[in-house]
Amino acid sequence: MHSGRLLLEEPIRMASILEPSKPNFFHAMTKIVGTLGPKSRSVEVISACLEAGMSVARFDFSWGDIDYHQETVENLKKAVKSTKKLCAVMLDTVGPELQVVNKSERAISLEADSFVVLTPDQEKEASSALLPINFSGLSKSVKPGDTIFIGQYLFTGNETTSIWMEVAELKGDDVVCLVKSGATLAGSLYTLHISQIRVDLPTLSDADKDVISKWGFRNNIDFLSLSHTRHAEDVRHAREFLSKLGDLHQTLIFAKIENTEGLTHFDEILQEADGVIISRGNLGIDLPPEKAEKVFNQDMYFKHTVKHVGQPMTHLESIASSAVRAAIKVRASVIIVFTSSGRAARLIAKYRPTMPVLSVVIPQLKTNQLRWSFTGAFEARQSLIVRGLFPMLADPRHPAESTSANNESVLKVALDHGKASGITKSHDRVVVCQKVGDASVVKIIELED
């Protein structure tokens, strides 16, 4: 019996149960994007969300004005300061979203088999017989027999809080619909979704541009969620607009796929966007559930990956791959990577290591001939959305290999941070990835008592 070999291959040694447990640990490797709304915009609630693991705060501009969301983001800044936890900001655009406006905010009940008129006249009061909408071209976009859904957030028309209707007649700019499922609509704003129909409205509207140039610019947004992305050109147009707004040229664009048109052009969108958000709610209306299984086939994906794995790697990707392999082999507690742009850390995280990746962002000094400033804050916050990646912003006075007056290098600060967070303990192994001069180095260290 080869007992020595057996012990080496055991994923967990039985004796490990006698070792002291780590007091704390980073939150789950999967990151959480939280939408800050009416019930989650106070400093206390936001602080609790940060403590619970929220990494990115999403601001949905389909409701609320600039002043409303500015008050919320100020509360977020206070919560970040009090909890000492980084949090990125994501602005979610409205785009060509169609909305039903209920100024009175009174609940509206619609009965099955009744008729309701959708009108672009927003001055009229919403009722069970008439619903004002924010789009004047609806009657030109639909035809009798088309399906329309109205509700909030995730809806299918089968709940008591959303409506499923069928277009019965077109009267000028008005659309007469037959209610197929009765429900009660509560609130001041509802989303209107037309199944399988293209709405002739720009993806990045003038209202969106106004919000980005004012609120987004003021708050240096880290991510732009581009709602209802339909073509790669939508992403290019948004990026061109951001490039004219100072530091927002660094903002990452996430294409939000919400309809079949976006799915049709998915490959080209993927080439342009920094990330993709799949809107399960709207797509769930347009596509039957069984179609979702065709989107991803694990077996085919694995074979495709193996087929292309022999292609030459870049120098940086080779280092990232080696760091992850080394960490797995020595069962490291954490991978520490020094970076200025964040790219090296993202490449390491791409290989989905089983241990957390601590990204130490080294700020860089830059000037625009008028003032001096440090980069690094954007890069650190944008790392928050990547699986298993936990950023910390280093002191710009201390490069990775230099020491301060107290003889503490940035590496020691990072190791101390790991111990304080409970991610490492004495005698743990740590893999460090950093640049020394022009050379990229991967080294393994063992922590002392």
Short recap of the structure:
Its EC number is 2.7.1.40. With 449 residues, the protein is an alpha/beta fold.
Characterization of this structure:
- Its EC number is 2.7.1.40.
- Its cofactor is K(+).
- This is Pyruvate kinase.
- The protein is α/β, with parallel strands linked by helices.
- The protein folds into 3 domains: about 25-95 and about 200-300, Alpha-Beta Barrel (TIM Barrel); about 100-195, PK beta-barrel domain-like (M1 Pyruvate Kinase, Domain 3, Beta Barrel); about 315-445, Pyruvate kinase, C-terminal domain (Pyruvate Kinase, Chain: A, domain 1, 3-Layer(aba) Sandwich).
- The protein is about 30% helix and about 25% strand.
- The chain contains 14 helices and 22 strands.
- The protein has helices at about 5-10, 45-50, 65-85, 140, 205-220, 230-240, 260-265, 265-270, 280-285, 300-310, 315-330, 345-350, 375-380, 410-420; strands at about 30-35, 55-60, 90, 100, 110, 115-120, 130, 145-150, 165-170, 175-180, 185, 190-195, 225, 250-255, 275-280, 335-340, 355-360, 365, 370-375, 390-395, 430-435, 440-445.
- The strands form 5 sheets. Strands 4-12-8-9-10-6-7 form a 7-stranded mixed β-sheet, with no helix packed on it. Strands 1-2-3-13-14-15 form a 6-stranded parallel β-sheet. The protein has a 5-stranded mixed β-sheet with strand order 20-17-16-21-22, sandwiched between helices.
- A hairpin with a 4-residue loop joins strand 18 (about 365) and strand 19.
- Helix 2 crosses helix 3 (about 65-85).
- The longest helix is centred in the N-terminal third of the chain and has 18 residues, at about 65-85.
- Residues about 1-10 and about 400-405 have low confidence and may be disordered.
